[in-house]
Specification:
Radius of gyration of chain B: 28 Å
Helix content of chain B: over 70%
Oligomer: heterodimer
Largest interface: A-B, 65 and 55 residues
Number of strands of chain B: 2
Distance between the termini of chain A: 108 Å
Distance between the termini of chain B: 15 Å
Number of helices of chain B: 6
Strand order of the largest sheet of chain B: 1-2
Shape of chain B: extended
């Protein structure tokens, strides 16, 4: 034998396997290769097996146990082995229990047939429960000794149903059944057992044979297995039941069988294998391969030719079990079969009574034979509805309320806090504006001076003045100053006022101004600035003293280009004509060739760009800045670091410059009074506003503390 | 002179329109604003065409010698690629020009900032302490240098946000840094006050100049 069959699940294993590869139960192998369950050296394991499922007899099992319990010498009661005695004793006990118990509906044999043949302790609970009720019919070995049973086999069939005819010679018939087993795979132990039994019967000549078979050949009905001419008394109780003391034998089917009877009441379905039922013979969980149905006549050669059949069976028992090499049957271990309650989830067939039920409620009331669609639903109780009332402690309730308040506060929109203004903002702005404009206009119109021009001069203004004076003193040739007009038109009033006097001095001394700009409006503002500065100058030659190179596009990059090659950075005049052919620009190769750079800007960033990009290329030539007052604080550090040689900031710087230059009446001096008045007004407004808001805050805090 | 009067009249009315903002946002101010925007845009466009494109791009190609024409074509090509930036599908074609502009601009700005501002300001901060430079006004120069240095340190300390973790919960700056930061706030406040004063003075000067123009114009009308 090439492999070992597991006695529990029937799975073939390797010969040297210690345990089943499928169910992992130990495999005890004898020396001849045959396998026996652990803990049993003889056929006691069969008694244990019987003890495990003794309460679950069914049709196929009856035939199986008939074969297993059949003794070769029926008359010799003393030769009955011990295991058979134990089986008979237990059969008697079971039969006594049958009298007291009626099998419930759920204990039908087809359901029990799925129970696991394992030990009782391995069964699941639901199988243990279903194991207790007894089947409605006794198994053949429980009825009477086999010898007598065989003697009466020709009269009545010892079936559990009481009405189903049974073959007369169950022993021979079992052999035929094994031959017609669908799977044809009997375990080795069973094959060995059969072979030993058949050989012993053959050798001793004590094989039980029907009388008819010994003397003559009797035709046998294929359906019942009975001899021709025999009649079955369906109303009479079997003899083995009478011997067992069962008097209330009835020919009626149990309720569960009645309910499962097909329409028409034909009971023939009991005589044939129910094809709708699962093929339990395919399951090997109990080690049995016999078909539960009766074989056809042509598959019963043993009745006609007993000798040949016996020899064939002996040969087959000695031969290895047949296998279906192509299709491996589904093998599930017993425990897995037990936990697969197919019948529990499969819809059960409704009884004929339910089919004939008349609908009493609903729109189909009065109709009969309605498909009871609601029956399975109403069969189950309603699911338990959990209580909706939450049990919370007082502490949890407090926390929940607190969380709810927090969430509700977050969901509320924030209320915009509107501060009360002392006066409407637009009205206040209007009055402040009107007051300032009126004050300045009055000061300009009246020409009142609140104070003298500044007498203290900042170092940057003094340095600026000194540098301009140096430019004015340069003669033959006159100083050529690069003038950068980089301020926006918005601050042109301040810038022109501050730059007018220095430019006028340079132009008056014959200085030459080459103007460039990095802002688009710069060229126009430069021309206006020069025109304004040269007003009423006795000696001024615009074509010889002023060159406007126009707009430098590119910001810092253009400044770097201008510092390196001015002729490439600014090749033409604003009119479009070439600039560097003019005599004014002859000899200019770089910014270092200019005598100085005068930057006029209102933006600190622009001033920083000129300082960073151009100032290093000036080669020590002075860089002067005329800036707006708003950018002076940022530009001033460059003067302190000697990167800028002078600076003039705003109107105050211009006033200081005019004081240094000792220029009498000028536009700066005419604006100086209004400027001072405006500064005082703004200071007063700031102080008054701060005082008002300070007092309000003080009273507000006082009122809050008082409240 | 009639031309000057016309232009002075236009300037007078435009000045009044702008000053009307003191009464709040009104259509007169909007008219002046739209007019300035339009005039500025037109002026800039003409300026770019005549002083940039023609003067610095077209004319060099036309008038320059042959060997320089090819060099002048390069900015023309790069400038032409920038047109593709107007369309999302072809915007990638302008990346080369943008890369050139950004790269050159960044290099120029960083180099100028290092050499012109950083090194120059550091040198200016330490120059008052150069005793060998000049003995004239030594004490005021040293005092100014100390104030300048202290103000620079404290102002920088105010922008120092680093702190040490003392335990699992407290993160605290060193006390000396905290003290310097508070002193630095004073210097920063003085600086911002000076800037505000400068802005206010510049705006006030511009207003005074415009009012003076209006007064001069009115006086010229009646004189």
């Amino acid at each position: 034998m090439s492999e070992v069959i597991c006695p529990y699940c029937g799975t073939p294993n390797l010969p040297d396997a210690k345990e089943c590869k499928y169910c992992h139960k130990p495999l005890s192998t004898r020396q001849d290769g045959e396998m026996t369950p652990p803990g049993s050296d003889n056929l006691d394991w069969l008694a244990n097996l019987r003890g495990a499922d003794r309460d679950e007899p069914w049709q196929g099992e009856s035939a199986e146990e008939n074969q297993g319990s059949r003794t070769p010498g029926g008359p010799e009661e003393d030769d009955v082995p011990e295991w058979l005695e134990r089986i008979r004793r237990r059969s008697m006990e079971d039969r006594a229990l049958q009298e007291m118990q009626t099998p419930p509906l759920e204990d039908r044999p087809d359901e029990q047939s799925l129970s696991s043949p394992d030990k009782e302790g391995d069964l699941p609970d639901w199988l243990k429960i279903s194991e207790e009720p007894q089947p409605p019919f006794p198994s053949p070995e429980e009825s009477e000794p086999l010898g007598e049973e065989i003697d009466h086999a020709g009269q009545t069939a010892p079936t559990g149903t009481g009405e189903t005819p049974f073959p007369a010679d169950l022993g021979e018939f079992d052999l035929g059944m094994e031959e017609t087993s669908p799977s044809g795979e009997a375990p080795d132990w069973l094959e060995q057992l059969k072979a030993e039994k058949s050989q012993a019967e053959f050798d001793t000549g004590e094989l039980d044979l029907p009388l008819d078979l010994e003397g003559k050949e009797t035709p046998v009905d294929s359906g019942t297995g009975m001899s021709e001419g025999e009649e079955i008394d369906f109303e009479a109780a079997p003899e083995f039941l009478e011997q067992a003391g069962i008097e209330d034998f009835t020919t009626e089917f149990p309720d569960w069988i009645e309910e499962s009877t097909p329409e028409g009441g034909d009971s023939d379905f009991l005589e044939k294998p129910d094809k709708s039922l699962p093929d339990f013979s395919a399951t090997e969980d109990i080690g049995m391969k016999e078909d539960i149905g009766f074989p056809p006549v042509e598959q019963l050669p043993a009745e006609a030719q007993p000798e040949t059949t016996r020899q064939t069976e002996i040969d087959r028992a000695a031969a290895p079990p047949r296998r279906d090499a192509d299709i491996e049957p589904a093998r599930l271990p017993g425990w897995l079969e037990a936990i697969k309650p197919i019948e529990s989830v499969a819809p059960a067939r409704f009884s004929a009574e339910a089919d004939n039920q008349t609908e009493s409620r609903g729109p189909l009331a009065g109709f009969q034979g309605i498909i009871p669609g609601s029956y399975p639903v109403t069969k189950y109780p309603k699911s338990a509805v959990p209580a909706l009332k939450m049990q919370v402690t007082e502490k949890q309730r407090v926390y929940a309320n607190l969380l709810e308040n927090l969430i509700s506060e977050e969901a509320k929109p924030l209320q915009r806090k509107v501060e009360k203004a002392a006066a409407p903002s637009e009205l206040l702005r209007f009055f402040v504006g009107i007051a300032l404009v009126g004050l300045l206009a009055f000061m300009l119109f009246s020409g009142i001076q609140l104070g003298s021009l500044p007498g203290l001069y900042s170092p940057d203004t003094v340095a600026f003045f000194n540098t301009i004076q140096q430019f004015s003193q340069v003669q033959n040739p006159p100083a050529r100053i690069l003038v950068a007009v980089d301020y926006e038109p918005a601050l042109a009033g301040e810038m022109q006022t501050a730059a007018r006097t220095p430019l006028r001095q340079m132009l008056a001394s014959g200085g030459q101004l080459i103007m460039v700009s990095t802002v688009p409006a710069g060229p126009a503002l430069g021309e206006q600035l020069v025109a304004d500065a040269a007003t009423d100058l006795p000696v001024f030659q615009p074509d010889l003293q002023v060159v406007n190179l126009g707009y430098l596009v590119g910001g810092s990059t253009s400044l770097a280009s201008l510092a390196a090659q001015p002729s490439i950075a600014a090749p033409a005049l604003t009119s479009g004509s070439p600039a560097w052919d003019l005599p004014l620009l002859q000899g200019i190769q770089s910014v270092a060739d200019f005598d100085g750079l005068l930057l006029m800007t209102d933006n600190a960033e622009t001033a920083r760009a000129w300082i960073e990009q151009v100032q290093p290329s000036l080669a020590g030539k002075p860089l002067l800045i005329i800036s707006s007052a708003q950018s002076a604080p940022i530009i001033l550090p460059y003067y302190q670091s000697n990167q800028v040689q002078g600076m003039l900031a705003g109107l105050s710087g211009s006033a200081a410059y005019e004081q240094l230059a000792q220029i009498g009446a000028s536009k700066t001096s005419s604006l100086w009074g209004a400027y001072q008045a405006g500064i005082l007004f703004v200071l007063g407004a700031i102080l008054l506003g701060g005082l008002v808001y300070g007092i309000r805050a003080l009273f507000h805090n006082f009122s809050r503390k008082r409240a | 002179m009639p031309t000057d009067i016309i232009w002075s009249l236009v300037a007078f009315f435009l000045t009044l329109l702008v000053l009307s903002y003191a009464l709040g946002d009104n259509p007169l101010f909007h008219i002046a604003a739209y007019l300035f925007v339009g005039v500025t845009a037109g002026y800039v466009a003409v300026l770019i065409i005549y002083q940039v494109l023609l003067a610095k791009l077209v004319m060099p190609i036309l008038s320059a010698p042959m060997e320089q024409k090819f060099l002048n074509v390069i900015p023309l090509v790069l400038g032409g690629l920038l047109i593709f930036k107007l369309f999302p599908r072809t915007a990638r074609l302008g990346n080369l020009s943008m890369a050139f502009l950004v790269g050159v601009g960044a290099a120029v700005a960083i180099g100028g900032a290092l050499t012109g501002t950083l090194f120059g300001q550091v040198r200016g901060a330490i120059s008052p302490f150069d005793l060998a430079a000049s003995e004239e006004d030594l004490f005021p120069r040293l005092a100014g240098g100390v104030i300048l240095l202290f103000g620079s340190m404290t102002s920088l300390a105010y922008f120092h946000f680093g702190a040490r973790r003392q335990d699992k919960e407290n993160v605290k700056q060193p006390e000396i840094v905290t003290l310097f930061a508070k002193i630095g706030q004073v210097f920063i406040a003085i600086t911002l006050g000076a800037l505000f004063a400068g802005v206010m003075a510049a705006a006030l000067t511009a207003l005074i100049e415009r009012l003076d123009f209006i007064i001069q114009f009115i006086q010229s009308l009646f004189s």
